[in-house]
Amino acid sequence: MHVVATAGHVDSGKSTLVRALTGMEPDRWEEERRRGLTIDLGYAWTTLPSGQDVAFVDVPGHERFLGNMLAGIGPAPVVCFVVAADEGWQAQSSDHRDAVAALGIQHGVVVLSRTDRASAQRRADVLARTRTELAGTGLQDAPAVAVSAIDGSGLGDLRAALDDVLAHVPAPTTTGRVRLWVDRSFTITGSGTVVTGTLAAGTLAQGDRLELLGHVGSRPVVVRGLQSRDTSHASVEPVSRVALNLRDVSATDIRRGDALVTAGAWPTTDVVGIRRTTGVAYADVPERLMVHVGTAAVPARLRPFGADHARLVLDRHLPLVLGDRLVLRDPGSRSVLGGARILDADPPALRRRGDGAHWAERLAGMDPAGDVLGEVAARGAVQVQHLRRLGLLSGNDAAAPAGVRVFGDWWVHAPVLEAWQRRLRAAVQALQERDPLAPGLSMGAARDLLKLPDERLLSHVIDGARLERDGGHVRPPGSRDNLGAVEPAIAELERRLTAHPFHAPESDELAALGLGSRELAAAERTGRLLRLRDGVVLLPTAPALAMRTLARLEQPFTMSDARQALDTTRRIAVPLLEHLDSRGWTQRLDTGHRRVVR
Fold first, then answer.
1. Least confident piece of the model among 159-168, 272-281, 343-352, 370-379
2. pTM score, two decimals?
């Protein structure tokens, strides 16, 4: 199916034309039929001579209902622009033209309606004026058809023109994420909540779990049933008019302008950076305005950065991405101010003086197709999934641009990575110079220093900075053996213990050498000493030397046997034997005996 929205001034005969083409009544309200005035969106469908199915979204033409018109035309890729041949181009025609231009619609048909009320010359004049007015829009070269819905003349030509136009509309994406802008929500007895909208991309299926992004937050919903053209389907592909029967949500909780999206696949934002595509320069636009996107109409505040770029702050979060087109409207005059395209769907906060100017300069230089390198550079580091959600990447095998380093699912700007490495290296080196006995900068302190977005990046920063990880600390390479000023004292202690391996120094002897717990811990980290409980300090070779001696004893042996064989005291023998037990080299048999484990 294709979806075509109507456009055109009030009383141009849009609804009459849709009725003649489809045989269906597009006006849904009794008041509309009584007054002969379309107020809200209407829907109808038919099959063209080629067999192509087409659905129409009929929009109101009166200026008071411009918001409803924008909700109808917003999600539609094709437009049927109607001008009454007897009345000619009207003020509302200009509003609708501006909306078409703002939305960047490139496919459509121009219809001169009510030709039974106008002479041939009048029809020619109106068509010439219409061509002039549509110049510069996507409809400037659209086929034009003269039609009278009253006598039926031209309807065959219109169907043929629609067939030809729709044959040249690019095929929509049937895979990937869904974003369905809701245009109606109601309850059907026995079925529950039903919402309708135009499916522009992706595929919907019965049983799908979606996320409802509404006026009051988000919530999960399940698609119980799915219809298109009053027919139930297991799945529906774009572009189609669809009705979804939803589970777990009340119709009163859903409004026009809400969106049903693939769960977890869309970012939401209330601040965007935009570039003007049509309309009034931003310096001349009021600060408070109405922003239309999809079926949503959201009040917003505009901060201009020159004539063509601005920052929009929306009154609520919307699922917006790079390239989305917006219509800006003056809520006072009800007129369309122009169109805009999103260049930055997740702009940085402007906290410091000069941030705005810096961001505006970057915004002005952005490629409308997306600047991945610029986005990564602006953030320093970003997860690749976030780039996909913003619309900057498609597919699962996107290659990182030059200047970006990839670590798992993180893309890091190379200069930012280098800055992290320099900062960490400087901090580790400064600590080493200030306190050679320190075990190094703790991993926690390193994370706090760099303020990394993900602690998993720290190992890559350490490796890139050519630093060493030692347990839970980061040290300069080769610094593990550097004991600084206490080196002579450690060397003296090593000399003594080499001569008498099991004569551990008393605490006063250690104090005389200037060796406290901190100095001894540093020596132990470098593998120079072994510390046992109760303040016993030996060489790391002491356990192996002890085993050689104990193995020569008659097994099992007592504590007294071990003490005498090792030429040491009970103060040293007890923790040493416990250490050997813990390593599985000796085994305690009872309170008084041990044996060497062979």
1. 370-379
2. 0.73
Continuous H helices in 115-265: 120-134, 155-167
Decide: 254 and 185 in contact? Cβ < 8 Å.
Answer: yes
Buried b (16+ CB within 10 A) or exposed e, 38-73: bbbbbbbbbebeeeebbbbbbbbbebebbbbbbbbb
Ramachandran class of 338: left when φ > 0, alpha when ψ lies in -120 to 50, beta otherwise:
left
Q: What is the mean pLDDT of residues 149-173?
A: 93
The yes-or-no verdict on residue 185 having pLDDT over 70 is yes
User: Which of 27-31, 127-131, 442-446 shows the highest mean pLDDT?
Assistant: 127-131
Q: How many helices (H) and strands (E) does the chain have?
A: 18, 32
**Can you spell out the DSSP letters for 50-110?**
TS-EEEEEE---SGGGHHHHHHHHTT-SEEEEEEETTT-S-HHHHHHHHHHHHHT--EEEE
What pLDDT is recorded for position 478?
63
Whole-number Å distance between alpha carbons of 491 and 470 = 23
Write the burial class of residue 151 (CB in 10 Å: 0-12 exposed, 13-18 middle, 19+ buried). exposed
Phi, psi of 120 (to 5 degrees): -60, -40
Q: What is the C-alpha separation between 259 and 269, in angstroms, rounded?
A: 13
- The Cα–Cα gap between 516 and 534 comes to 14
* Pair type for strands 53-58 and 42-47: antiparallel
Residue 327 burial by Cβ neighbours in a 10 Å radius (0-12, 13-18, 19+) = buried
Q: Which residues contact 79 (CB under 8 A, 6 or more apart)?
A: 4, 5, 6, 7, 73, 100, 105, 107, 108, 109, 139
b/e per residue, 360-394, with b = 16+ CB within 10 A? Answer: bebbeebeeebbbbbbbbbbbbbebebbbbbbbbe
Report the 3 state secondary structure along 487-550.
Answer: HHHHHHHHHHHHHCCCCCCCHHHHHHCCCCHHHHHHHHHCCCCEECHHHCEECCCHHHHHHHHH
Q: Tally the residues of the chain.
A: 598
When computed from its CA atoms, the radius of gyration of the chain, rounded to whole angstroms, is: 39
The gap from C-alpha 39 to its chain's centroid, in whole angstroms, comes to 37
SS (H, E, C) 444-459: HHHHHHHCCCCHHHHH
Query: How many other CB atoms are found less than 10 A from the CB of residue 402?
Result: 7
Sheet holding 473-475, edge to edge: 441-442, 473-475, 468-470
Residue type, 348: P
C-alpha to C-alpha distance for 82 and 95, rounded to whole angstroms: 13
Spatial distance between the Cα atoms of 227 and 294, rounded to a whole number of angstroms? 21
Dihedrals phi, psi of 75, to nearest 5 degrees: -85, -5
**Count of C-beta atoms within a 10 Å radius of residue 274:** 26
* Of 228, 312, 319, the residue nearest 265 (C-alpha): 319
Helix axes 542-551, 559-566, angle to 10 degrees: 110
Distance from C-alpha of 513 to C-alpha of 279, rounded to nearest angstrom: 84
